[in-house]
Amino acid sequence: MLRCLGLGLVFVAAGACSTVIAGEPLAIVEHVAAHREANAVSSIPWGAYAAAAADPAELRSLPIGVFDSGIGGLTVLEAILKLDQHHNDTGAPGGDGLPDFQGERFIYLGDQANMPYGNYPSAGRVDFLRELIVRDALFLLGDRFDAPASTKELQKQMKPPVKAIVIACNTATAYGLDDIRAALERWKIPVLVVGVVEAGGRGVIDAMRQDTTQGAAAVLATVGTCSSEAYPKTIARLAGQQGLQAPAVCQQGCVGLAGAIEGSPAFIAAAKPDGGASAAAVEYLGPSGSHKQAKIDAALMPVYDFDSAGLIGDPGNVANLRLNSVENYIRYDVATLVAEHRRRADAKPITTVVLGCTHYPLAVAQIDAAFQRLRNYRNAAGVQPYADLIAEQITYVDPGEYTARELYRGLFLRKQLLRAGEECVLATDQCFVTVASPSLSADKKDTLGNLTAEYKYSRSAGDMTRADVLTVPMSSNAEAAAAVSAWFHKLPHVGRRFAAGER
Length: 503
Known about the structure:
The chain is an alpha/beta fold. It is built from 16 helices and 17 strands. The strands form 5 sheets. A 6-stranded mixed β-sheet has the order 7-6-2-3-16-17, sandwiched between helices. Strands 1-15-14-8-9 form a 5-stranded parallel β-sheet, sandwiched between helices. Strand 2, helix 3 (74-82) and strand 3 (106-110) form a beta-alpha-beta unit. Helix 6 (196-210) crosses helix 13 (399-413). The longest helix has 18 residues, at 170-187. The radius of gyration is 22 Å and the shape is globular. The protein starts with a strand and ends with a helix.
């Protein structure tokens, strides 16, 4: 049985506490502070924020910025757009039948060229990841974007800056929230920043109050998010603040699940006209018999219970086996998580699961089915080894829904929500993605024109002139626009908004 949890929590001021990865100050923060000329790299329209230094309400007419490493953050934007927990005229608790952000406008950025962010820590590129995250914020704070790559015109086009930034990415929140807040303080820009990890942690605490069994919490997230320990630390801290005993937390760093949901060719091979799958175009990066972080264990093959239709290769030879469906990625990750949890001497049944990547809410039904399949699994001896480790009813925490409430509360307290009769300077919502720069040498791009994994994870922080990607309107990138459009039936509020704006 499946129970989704996202609403009904007590308001806590956004930003009251943070979960971050400590590190040395980033050069880009000081570079931006020292270079305020209009044509500087990653320049900010300082004048637009000057008046707001004394009165943040001056930013009220600006749009809200949302970013993710890909298009998965659109699930967070969907949660924001459908939120109706307040009266629009007064801000008082209680829905009025109108979306709380109905009059607001949004600018979305998906850093497609540099995704997935979750792989940078394991590649030893944490500082570069932190820089990428600050650059995402700089784009939203800025007033320019690149012309479509296909035009070969590299002049900048104009966009408005934003009054708030939502980090709609768990990995980016874990590794960049503190950097962005520190940068805004250094630049004296009063922009609200909300991250999904803090919101997800509050969701677990909310679930704990309703869980009489005191079971365990599981986190499904990227490898980077899990290695940061952001969720266990956040959950423990929030539980302590509220006088609760922190639950046991088990984590699964999912290699490729987000990419599979998004249809990335590095994780899902394109179908051929004959019904088969072509696996040769791009190097496969998902779980395999030899993967260092996501090894397919031959002994667990009956437990994985892979769907043969979503496999490439011989199931009897895991050395060459390749997963080729979202369903099989989920079965692999859930089985790996629970098998590892079973090794704990004091393992309690999993009662709460955090969907710790923005893509995962789109597959929550499949995730729940995988848990229940494993709960009912019988081995050759007729024993059910996992039945006592998985609750009959699991609560799924979608951090996006909690993020929406924290965003509303933060803007309300700052008096930055649009009032009745006021309009945003942006007429329609805008959506941008990053793409490989046409000027980048061919050896740094794969056959589809994307950055190669070798190049992507070899870069270092500190190069202020780096221009290997462009940030362009999503409508100018056919592949990205098609991917987003395919999600519109799952994200109806996003679909309706972007149908009228920039896709």
